[in-house]
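I am writing to request your help with a piece of structural work I have in hand. I am sending you one protein, given as its amino acid sequence and as whole-number tokens for its backbone shapes. Kindly check, if you would, that the fold set down in the tokens agrees with what the sequence suggests. You will find the record immediately after this paragraph:
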Amino acid sequence: MYSHILNLITLLIILINLSLIPPAVTSDPRVTTASNVTCGTGSPTTPTYIPTFVQAMEQLSSNLNNSNNNFATTNITNIPSSNNSTFSFYALVQCHEDLSRTDCLVCYAVSRTAVPACLPRTSGRIFLDGCFVRYDNHSFFQEAVDPNTDTKNCSSNLRSDNDWSDFRGGFNEFNQSVRGLVENMTEVALNNSGFSVMELGGVYGLAQCWESLSNDGCRTCLEKAKNEVKTCVPSRDGRAMNAGCFLRYSTQKFYHNDDEGGGGSSAISSPGAKVAVVLASVAFLMISSFAGYAAYIRISKRREEKKNMGQLSNSFNKSGLKYKYETLEKATNYFDISNKLGQGGAGSVYKGTLPNGDVVAVKRLFFNTRQWVDEFFNEVNLISAIEHKNLIKLLACSIEGPESLLVYEYVPNKSLDHFLFDKDKVQVLSWKQRMGVILGTAEGLAYLHGGCHVRIIHRDIKSSNILLDKDFNPKIADFGLVRTFGADRSHLTTGIAGTLGYMAPEYIVRGQLTEKADVFSFGVVVLEIACGKRNNAFVEDAGSLLQTVWKLYKEGVVAEAIDPLLNGDFPEQEALEVLQIGLMCTQASAALRPSMEEVVVFLTTKSGDRQIPVPHQPPFLNARALMSQGLTNSSNSSPLTKMGQSYTTSQSSTTPSSEWPLRIDELSSG
């Protein structure tokens, strides 16, 4: 397949070069480029855009051939789009009126071989010295100026004595000639259907408005153009290229007088001109075909993904878990902002009420990247296959609307971070409630690591991903970053993903992923729950919670570490053991950390019946130290070097979030 593409590109280059060879006639179609192709920023929402482009260019060519002048437009409206809407396509060609019909058709044929460089973007334009071509998804025929795209082009300066030899008055004479030329030329054009050519004091000029402009629009465009080219002096050549007109001056005559065949209506007759037009047309079709082929490959991949999702849809149909998009849309009052529960890395979560009265949480996913598609499959495939009282329950799925939706059980108390870190706390969790959250989270993780049919690593355990039901029982949520691996594997080496401040050091620095990465994250959460403080390890000039707790633990003043909002209402021995468990889970060495099953045993066994090991000092990483380690690591495979600056702010509450924590988007597959 790739050899065919290479041959296609090689042939394309040859054809374009041939098409740019001037035809064997005395006329000049002026196919030199006055401006590079200018492309818009919009992207089409439908795979039919490129075929529509080809169709419009052919119509434009036909309209130009059949017109009595050097101007043509075309538009195709109400074209069905893939998102159940329609779109429109508009195109325009304007040859300068001094060109013959032959030269105009050649100039257009050459220009349309360059415009496809903008595909698949929804707009593009090119100025040649003899013609202008533009396409867009809205009607622009009356546009005179555009501050975003209007430009000028000034050639080399006249500086040496020889350069000024034609102007006895030197620079001043040249400057006056240019200024007088563009002023007079503008007025003549406005009285001559928007076109004029002129010579004044050894300087030659041309002004051309597109024929679709009104006289007022032409004046607006040329007024701006003449002011632009005046600033080109002392350049020997200056061009102004605006949305609705073209204006040029030069020390060399470049236009055709009427007696030289300009503006005629003769058809293409010379063999050289025919060859140029044919080759340029073939080159255009080749470029369009190649662009279409590239689009076909992308569309095929999307269809394959939709096929996979269709198979997934069938399984949900059989299990009764599939809902219609319209039903869920209506349930959330069309995703009204007042129903928004939170914002995550892969989408937003909304509260919804189903027709039967059940209240649910609807996660709205936006598939802008392949990564998000993978996260969707992770959530659906894994969550639908596992069930535990401390894992959020997946109720339904919708994959046939403009975006995919996941429906979860509604958890009324939102996420744990609301009760720990919000400035205006609605409620302060009691010590008993905190212990219940710690134990329930530990049991949920222990189930993921060894209690279900497959080993699952969550990779993003943090306070905002632990939801609380009406009785403040915890439920682990957001399974978009999970990884699974067989019992025969000791670890996975993968691109990093998760949230800074909760990520294990061996995972950040070497990309080694085991269940102990979740254990480290859990340990951080335990300390946050007990202390009521966020782990600010990656905020400049902020002390790490791990560092603070370790210092107080070593000094034997555990009570100072516990959340002061509890007002001392907690058992000191139990608080000491909780901090000890948190520190033990966050030890630098993964081998020294307990398994989640062992943590559950520590939490459920009476103090006299078990002994919690004494922890070693946890890693006191901060952002500067971490980046220093990563940047000095010479290994090209270091996941830290892949991290770069690719992160998004993790927001799981409706309250404004600070820049911390930062969720690292995965840059390579596991």
Notes: The chain has four domains: 1-141+270-304, 150-260, 320-409, 416-485+492-605+612-664.
